[in-house]
Amino acid sequence: MPGVELQPSESNQPYHRLLNDYSNKCRHRSKAFSFLNLVLTIVLVLSGLLLLSLLKPLVDPCWLPVPGSRCFWPYHKPHTLLLISMDGFRHDYLELVRLRLGRDSLPNFARLEADGVRANRSINAFPTVTMPNHHTLVTGLYPQDSGVVDNSMFDSHWPNETFDMGSQKSLNEAPWLDGWPEPIWVTLQRKGGLAGSLLWPLTDNFVNGDLPFQQVSQFTTLDGSVRYPYTKRVKDLLWWLDNPRYRLDLVLAYFDEPDETGHAYGPESEEVAEVVVELDKALGQLLDGLEARHLRDKVDIILTADHGMTWITRDRMIVIDDLLDPADYSATEFSSVGLVYPKPGKEDEVYSKLHGAHPHLKVYWLSDTPSVLNFNHTNSRMPAIVLLPDPLWHLVHSGIHGYSPEFADMNPFLIASGPSFRRHEVVDQVYAIDIYTLMCWLLRIRPGSNNGNLERIANSLLKPEVAERLLSFERWPEWFVWVTLELELMWLFMVVIVIASAAIALGMSLHMQRKYSRLAEHSRDHYEDKNPVF
């Protein structure tokens, strides 16, 4: 009869109850997968937004990368870092020139000072000569540990070779830096960055199989007849910094003055003042070029030097040949410091002849060298005997350097300017040994073992918020630093893997939801077919 529901027979009731339970179970599972789909969709959307923010292009055309470009960087790309060394630029040269030529005689150094922070003195490393201190700047190590102990040196591993910074053959044919701590530019390029070197010492030969991505050889000016004008050097620097095919992260630039003029005429000479004015013009060309290219707020500049300079007169000479037989020893340095390598079996004899031989000469076994010099480690390159004449005593006339960094005339200056540094401030001193670790953290690369102190230099030079960020980064757990810096972008690929996994899971979940929805619908229809309503 119409409107009368026919009840299933008692024999079919278990079957229909099971069918109804199965339908309900399928509906519940379908709803569970619907909720899972919603969660996975939210995860995918949020992960996608995060990924897009992390992969934000650094420049508009970066989606079509050109050779040498790296479009993306964790968090955001560090500012380009430009390290400039003006050889032999004593800490007080700016003041001496302004006293001689007038307050406004160095307008571009003044610009850099006003836009940045100046350290009146940079405490450099012993011996205060060119090659060791340039290598200290890029390794953060004292010469006793960096492998570059002097401008020329011996190594017991190559008994018939002499390292000499003026010899292209000795620098390029022997692996002088293999097996020693790598400089910052090697670490940077191994991590995916790019470096340029303009005349920077010890960047001509391969170091751990690598060369700077862009390079002007230090031997360009080795021959005095070859002139590489400052205007051309600055043009090359600006081309490197502005060229989208290069996108350099670190540039090391070397200027050979005022060292050469200081040696020839003395540190307080008119000739040195004229050279400093010439360097000021080159600096102005650089600053104007950066501003014209809208790079001034994208480049951090550290301007410093390797050492200072002082006067030496003929009445303060110590003639070593009057004290020793040249056949009994070899030496790589006889100037403001003496590095003596006695012939085998002659060590005690050489030491006894030197010790007490002159009232203004101190003689030390290497292990007894004053700890303040950080020059007493034993390795294949360190001398057996170290000679330290009193300040202003030497073997040559006019200008010289190399004395202990405790002698203020040996200290260079430092000016740091750019988006990371304080503005219009002056600090008493910084330590050259700290510059390496500062540069590493600014470039977001993990520094190697070094003698520097990040906190000491960061609090002196950096804006407070930048210093706090770098110092907190340095204090991160070792494993976290390893993940973020050593693995570079591996963490980014892990995010991509998570997104891909979530997408696959969402697809499978949608499939299962549809499956259980169909099963629930089919079970309901089948149940209704078995239970008609009239």
UniProtKB/TrEMBL annotation:
The chain crosses the membrane at residues 35-55, 489-510. Keywords: Membrane, Transmembrane, Transmembrane helix. The keyword Cytoplasm does not apply. It comes from the Eukaryota. Gene3D superfamilies: 3.30.1360.180, Alkaline Phosphatase, subunit A (3.40.720.10). GO terms for molecular function: hydrolase activity. The keyword Membrane applies. InterPro entries: Alkaline_phosphatase_core_sf (IPR017850), Phosphodiest/P_Trfase (IPR002591). It holds the Pfam family Phosphodiest. PANTHER family: BIS(5'-ADENOSYL)-TRIPHOSPHATASE, ECTONUCLEOTIDE PYROPHOSPHATASE/PHOSPHODIESTERASE. This is Type I phosphodiesterase / nucleotide pyrophosphatase. It comes from Opisthorchis viverrini (Southeast Asian liver fluke).
